[in-house]
Amino acid sequence: MEFRIDSGALAEAVAWAARVLPARSPVPVLGGLLLEAADGRLAVSGLDHEASARIEVDADVLRDGRALVLGRRLLDICKVLPHGPVACATDGARLAVTGGEARFGLSLLPLDDYPDRPALPERRGEVDADAFAAAVGHVAVAAGRDDSLPVLTGIRLGLDGTTMTLAATDRYRYAVRTLQWRPEGPFEGTVDVVVPARRLTEIARSHAGAGTVRLALDGGSVGFESLARRTTTRLIDGRLPRHDKLFALGEHAVAVMERAPLVEAVKRVAVVAEGDSPVRLAFDGATVHLQAGYEDDVASQRLPAALRGGHAMTVAFNPGYLLDALGSFDAPEIGLRLLGPGQRALITDATDDGAGTHRHLLMSVKPLV
Hints:
The chain is an alpha+beta fold. It has helices at 7-17, 71-80, 129-140, 197-207, 244-247, 259-269, 319-327, and strands at residues 2-6, 32-38, 41-47, 51-58, 60-63, 65-70, 85-91, 94-99, 102-107, 123-128, 154-160, 163-169, 173-180, 182-183, 190-196, 212-217, 221-226, 229-234, 253-258, 279-283, 287-294, 297-304, 306-308, 313-317, 333-338, 344-349, 358-363. Strand 11 and strand 12 form a beta hairpin. It starts with a strand and ends in a 6-residue tail after the last strand.
């Protein structure tokens, strides 16, 4: 195998495929990246037991061939290559990489031991790449981190007609985002699967800017494809709890506030909140009084807040959870739908009429007086 390519194009392709490489693996070849050169294209592929990635870029191919090299070592080399053309060629049991006056030699891994790349599942339709990346980011903050409860570390991907629903929960909060997608041909029935949150976040970000992402799905895996990039990941067994009843608040008050000043105020007063100590929000109809800390170490700030449909009340939240939720919104104003102290609270866009595309549920705690 022998090819020439721009150092920037090589570095980008290697970095993209290396996303799926395991940090540690008892199987050495799974730490490898497969390079395939043919017909004026270089394909770079990586995989582990859960995910795969493949990207194709233009290259001046002088000799067709395949080579398997340590992925992270190749990535490190690409980061320090001089700008300009790079020549890569297999030479016996090595891959020689030459850029300018710099030359590197990489040992080849045994190709016969490398697993076959998983096939792309059945194609179902496509979604706007940037909208999808944003939506995944909106809900991923609520996904669990406890691997003993695998299903809660995932993001629900639901398809119903032309509506895609993304949702995540760790039992203390629940984020939901809906967006439009375009099914390929008539779409009957519904789809409800759970995708690892970390993987889906990486995948969505890596396809952002590609225009559209084609979605492929079967019973055990989900695939995404855009331009010359293709990724797959295994699904998590199980289902997330439904959010419909949780989000039905019944009679409630709504506090409307500017989002950016609220974020800054929560950050400011939370510096005295130790451990699980909450930030308290006291609404009096026209303002909200934020307070944190007890006894000598306290902080407070007052902001404008219009309270509608309810009387003065005080609610309290874990400051980290509250900041995660507020940071996932893009709207300049948010609406905080309140049932009362120690009960559910729903954060939405201030213009949401009750069926918005982005909603984030938090459990408030009963504030100590």
